[in-house]
Specification:
about 375 residues, D-Maltodextrin-Binding Protein, domain 2, 2 domains, 6-stranded mixed β-sheet, 14 helices, 12 strands, globular
């Protein structure tokens, strides 16, 4: 079976047929193992990830291996205004799940400091359209809460968000939204870290050196930029509500770094991945900002880390057709192999792939979110 045949099959709604069975999407969807079923050994040596321990469906029998949706929703919800691209396709097969859906709406969080951000998702949107047969509307939100409200209200079908944002969604709508895949790095890890960045020329060498100083967090809904590092500080005997002289919400890791580089704050909370505190990190907010010329990475020093925590999930509305969710899994599984250029455009490191997740993967973060909200309501708050 070739790619053209498979796409025609999906477009005519035959996702419960042997086409879907070959892709193993149904088994992947129903697995109780948060790591998902193992891929066929026939994948060995295919694409940039050469290990067989890949927890995603092998879709080569359906389509030749021709992916991260991450960050998103620009809607008119509260203070967040959304604009969409794409339109409903009136030529979809009658009675198919595609005709029932009409279009696929995906939310991503944009970066106010990078006007070209949305354009980088063009290849991703095109890939989803090719595989699903649906026009794809990409919504770009200006902040974390925009994505939360977009998926919670049902105005989009899928989104990517941080674990803490997912915890916020779960608190609002329960199991109507579920995480279903995350990025697995080339080295096999599925987590990332929070880090505190300071100017390399400063005297700050440890967290203790920042007592009474100013810190830029990312966002109240950010796992790595707020919730998880505050939990780790408490475990280390530091009360984040009283330890710092002042803290601000920058709105994003890039904005936090720029605020620190411009002298507005002494330190910035950032995200780092593709490594460990012992080996160093190959990816991170400071590296991305450096590539864009916003800061000079060699003038930044990381003095503290917290983690790892599970990578940001791709989440989907569970009240959408099951065949659609199955096909989305397969589409994401294909992307890093079939379109490595799109994978890179989305900010992913070569060799990465996807792993299956469910709500249990984020149990710790769900509990942390509730705990942090309770503490703040009880009297503690950021200055």
């Amino acid at each position: 079976m070739n790619a053209a045949f498979a796409i025609r099959a999906f477009r005519t709604g035959l996702t419960k047929s042997k086409v879907l069975a070959a892709a193993s999407c149904s088994a992947f969807a129903q697995t109780s193992d948060p790591n998902g079923p193992r891929l066929s050994a026939s994948l060995k040596g295919r694409g940039p990830y050469h290990k067989t321990d890949i927890a995603l469906p092998y879709v080569a029998p359906v389509m030749t291996f021709q992916r991260q949706l991450t960050s998103w929703a620009f809607m008119a919800l509260g203070a967040c205004a959304l604009s969409a691209c794409g339109s409903k396709d009136s030529n979809l097969p009658a009675g198919s799940w595609q005709a029932e859906m009409g279009r696929l709406r995906v939310a991503v969080r944009g970066d106010d400091a990078d006007p070209a951000f949305a354009a980088r998702w063009g290849g991703y949107r095109k890939h989803l359209t090719e595989v699903t047969g649906l026009p794809v509307e990409l919504f770009e939100a200006t902040d974390y809460n925009g994505v939360v409200q977009a998926i919670s209200s049902g105005q989009v079908d899928m989104a990517t968000m941080g674990a803490s944002s997912y915890a916020n969604v779960a608190a609002q709508v329960g199991d109507k939204v579920a995480p279903f895949v995350i990025v697995r790095q080339a080295e096999g890890t599925k987590g990332y870290y929070s880090a505190i960045a300071v100017k390399a020329g400063s005297s700050f060498r440890s967290l203790n050196d920042l007592k009474g100083k100013t810190l830029a967090y990312v966002d109240f809904n950010s796992t790595s930029g707020y919730v998880y590092p505050r939990k780790t500080m408490r475990e280390q005997g530091v009360n984040p509500d009283t330890f710092f002289g002042r803290s601000i919400m920058a709105g994003g890791a890039t904005q936090a770094l720029v605020a620190m580089a411009n002298g507005r704050v002494d330190a910035a909370m950032v995200t780092v991945s593709a490594g460990t505190p012992e080996t160093g990190f190959a990816a991170g907010s400071h590296i991305t900002a450096g590539r864009r010329g916003l800061i000079k990475p060699n003038e930044i020093r990381l003095i503290w880390t917290a983690g790892p925590m599970p990578n940001s999930p791709f989440v989907v509305r569970t009240d959408r057709p099951a065949p659609m969710i199955d096909v989305l899994r397969g589409a994401l599984a294909m992307l890093p192999y079939e379109k490595p250029d799109v994978w890179e455009e989305m900010g992913q490191v070569a060799g990465g792939t996807f792993a299956s997740v469910n709500k249990a993967t984020y149990a710790e973060v769900l509990a942390l979110r509730d705990e942090d909200i309770s503490k703040r309501r009880a009297g503690g708050s950021s200055k």
